[in-house]
Amino acid sequence: MTTKAPSSSPRRAGQRLSWRNPSVRSAVYQGLLLALVAAAAWYLLSNTLANLAQRNISSGFGFLGREAGFAIGETPIAYTPADTYGRAILVGLLNTLRVSVVCIVVATLLGTLLGMARLSHNWLIARLAGVYIEFVRNVPLLLQLFFWYAIITESTPGPRQALNPLPGVFLSNRGLKLPGLQGDALDWIAGGLALAVLLSVLLWHGARKMRLRSGKPLPVLRIAATLLLALPLAGWWFSGAALALDMPHLRGFNFQGGISLSPEFAALTMGLVVYTSAFIAEVVRSGVQSVSRGQWEAAQALGLSRGRTLRLVILPQALRVIVPPMTSQFLNVTKNSSLAVAIGYPDIVSVVNTTLNQTGQAVEGIMIIMAAYLAVSLAIALLMNWYNRRIALVER
């Protein structure tokens, strides 16, 4: 004889909808929080639109298509005052990206050297590196920017008395002038260089897998150096050698032609590199010290020199500790570049400030700046997180 179990589905349904159920309480709290955030956003938006309408200020991004009417000192792409506000803001964004990339690369190299110097067995080198790091980290970045800008602009002569250490190289208070290249071959050379970098990266990954499988190393550095030299030359040859050297020359009160590095760009680069390298040095030092002493002793027992031990044994393990805080330093470089407005470098903040002063579109201008820095920061974070996952230890 079988007995039928009593049905408990109504009771269970009541329990699922009871306030004692943690899931129900969690859903209610999250719904209330979401409604509160939506109400706050609606209030701020409606209040802003009402204030703009009261002052007869039109909203929207239609001003981006209007003529800008102001010049920009440094333009990585073609730009004239007759171009639109949208193109002017693009120029400012490219200037921000240019200085950020240069500073990230140089600050990483300098910071790594300083971090290694801090760990040196030489007492003088270790103490000098420590004094540099502690001094630079505790001086405000804005003050350092003013210092470098004053040094560059006040300690160099005018264009007519410019220093000429090498043929075609002039240093004055207007900046550094260098010989440049011009011609149709530049696109081919740039394409060859980009292809060489891509092939070098693929070669490095392939050589690493081959070394793990068979233990046979490949001369990656020699092959990569050959590619970096041969492919740009091949691009130059295929283009018909349409390339000419553009030498800077004095005309009036300034130089014409060649490549120009402005004092503002130089001061901003120096300030960001010096400031950020001190923080990166501490990141590198802590990462190296996180590797156990036994790794050093095992490498020395195998007969490896200190340099090879550091390069082949210690740094690959320290990278797993170094990369996360290093990502924060790269993000700080990009965000700190907004201080460029204080010394007159035309980054995106400076260009948007000029734009909103002319158009009155303050809200839209701030939104553009926020979106630009958010996009750049997210791109850096995604790239560094991908690299961090690549080097992370895989548990078996």
From TrEMBL:
Tell me, what's a Pfam family for it? BPD_transp_1
> Which terms in the GO cellular component ontology are assigned?
ATP-binding cassette (ABC) transporter complex
Transmembrane segment boundaries: 26-45, 97-117, 129-151, 188-207, 219-245, 366-387
InterPro entries named among the record's database cross-references = AA_ABC_transptr_permease_3TM, ArtM/GltK/GlnP/TcyL/YhdX-like, MetI-like, MetI-like_sf
User: How does the protein associate with the membrane?
Assistant: Multi-pass membrane protein
Q: Which domain of life is it from?
A: Bacteria
Cell membrane: is it a keyword of this entry? Answer: yes
Protein family per UniProt: Belongs to the binding-protein-dependent transport system permease family. HisMQ subfamily.
The name this protein carries in UniProt is Amino acid ABC transporter membrane protein 1 (PAAT family)
Instruction: Read off the lineage from the record.
Output: Bacteria, Pseudomonadati, Pseudomonadota, Betaproteobacteria, Burkholderiales
